[in-house]
Amino acid sequence: METARTRWGLVLAIWFAGLVAAGQFSKTAVIYAELGDVWPGAGLWLGLVVSVVGAVGILFGTSAGLAVARIGARRLLLGALGVGAALSAVEAWLPSLWLMLPLRVAEGFAHLAIVVAGPVLMGRVAAARDQVAAMTLWSTFFGLAFTLTATLGLPLVHALGPAALFAVHAGLMAMAA
């Protein structure tokens, strides 16, 4: 369905959803060293806290489009943001590594849903003449999330600990929803 006028407010809201979805990666990757203090002796398993989110995308990425078609992009995006917020809130309690890993797997599914549904929705709310600009904006979310996490999140973690970053992320996910 082609729209005559770009709904820039929705474009920005969808982009923000992508930004917080990328935060699902950056919140662990940027503070990897600090997470070693949370789970001392985790060794190789600590790397999975970061990478398992991406593994979900690798394994299930090709079928994510089917979920968008069946569930609907809007419903899938909103549901994934809500689930992502809840998962980040539980992660803020810094559970045992053996509970954190399945939480991160679930977060990988939420992440995948957001990054697949987001551009579909963005294309729907942007007029044909503005779709290139909207998709260019979308392409910035991953790098910007890492920049913001390193610039703002890392000092937060140094001041208040990793749980604070997970809690802030939960709030941002809820705000995006």
Would you write up a description of this structure?
The protein is mainly α and 177 residues long. The protein is 84% helix and 0% strand. It is built from 8 helices and no strands. It has helices spanning 8-29, 32-38, 44-71, 73-91, 97-125, 131-138, 141-160, 162-176. It starts with 7 loop residues before the first helix and ends with a helix. The model has no long low-confidence stretch (mean pLDDT 95).
Q: What keyword list fits this structure?
A:
single chain; about 180 residues; mainly alpha; 8 helices; about 85% helix
Broad structural category: mainly alpha
The average pLDDT is 95
Task: Please state the CA-atom Rg, rounded to the nearest Å.
Answer: 16 Å
| Low-pLDDT segments, ≥5 res | none
